[in-house]
Amino acid sequence: MIEEFKDKNVGGERVIFCNRCKQDTKHIIKSSLVTNGNDQINDDFIFYWSENVEILKCNGCGTTTVMVEESNSEELPWKDGAYPHIVYFPNREDGYIQVIEKGFLPWKIQKIYSETIECYRHGLVVLCVAGIRATLEGVCQDRNVKDGIVKRKRKGVYVDRKINNLEGKINGMCEAGFVSKRNIDILHTLRIVGNDAVHELSVLEKVKVEAAISILNHILTDVYVLPEKQRLLKNVQDGSGLPL
Ligand SMILES: [Zn+2]
User: Fold this and answer.
1) CA of residue 10 to ligand 1 center, whole Å
2) Is the pLDDT of residue 170 over 90?
3) Taking every annotated instance into account, which residue ranges of this chain make up the domain DUF4145 (predicted)?
4) How far is the CA of 27 from the centre of ligand 1 (A)?
């Protein structure tokens, strides 16, 4: 059975982020369509679902946004329709995060990094973390680091072994002098975060992913941006290059 309620919410308000005003603003509901439905799956089980589509207008700048709110009896506790999934068109741009000057990165890494940031902006947390890991792999590959020394416990004693997984490669980056010893722990933190998300498909908090991106930015700046800027500056000082 399906029921439709047109313009039931018109005149109501929602406070959401406005992409043009760059802050949360009051939005007026100009049009709405609520659709409630249920399907009798078998004698004992009825599946309930609800969809609410609204056209919203920012009270500050007049920009229009479409909101689609969905919920169903399987994914969520069916109580007052609480905790529905909400999507906005266009996507809200409130997930602002500092990104580095991508032009200094090798093309391949630039591409993985850009897609990783896009995943973050669209709330695709697991893919974003997988992207962080892939960016790290890309840096190791670009610097031709294929392995590194890892401590492994053998018969109760730690021994050094050369290993070619990401853990080994990260240590190899340090051995080759591409990253400082201080930054190694940071890189391993990123690797472990990536491991958890990819292998266990765990849901990471957005704030942890933001921290992981900041750390990744720090590493990429150290490995690519700063050496390149230093080189440009040196060229200017020598009179052999263009100013920054
Ligand atoms: Zn606005």
Assistant:
1) 19
2) no
3) 122-216
4) 8
- How far does residue 66's CA lie from ligand 1's centre (Å)? 14
Do β-strands 157-163 and 64-72 pair in parallel, antiparallel, or remain unpaired?
Answer: unpaired
The rounded distance, in Å, linking the Cα atoms of 169 and 150 is 9
Q: Do the bridges between strand 23-42 and strand 64-72 make them parallel or antiparallel, or are there none, so unpaired? A: unpaired
pLDDT tens for each residue of 171-200: 898 888 888 887 788 778 777 776 666 665
CATH 1.20.120 residue ranges for the chain: 102-238
Cα of 9 to ligand 1 centre, how many Å?
Answer: 20
- In the reported structure, the alpha carbon of residue 55 is separated from the centroid of ligand 1 by a whole-number distance in angstroms of 14
Q: How many angstroms separate the CA atoms of 116 and 151, rounded? A: 30
Ligand 1 centroid–CA 20 distance in Å is 5
**CATH fold for domain 102-238:** Four Helix Bundle (Hemerythrin (Met), subunit A) (1.20.120)
Token pair in block for residue 206:
């957005």
Between the CA of 18 and the centroid of ligand 1 the distance, in Å, is 5
pLDDT tens digits, 47-86: 888 899 999 999 999 999 999 988 887 765 544 544 457 8
* CA 141 – ligand 1 centroid, Å: 44
Contact 176, 184 (CB under 8 A): no
DSSP 8-class letter at 105: S
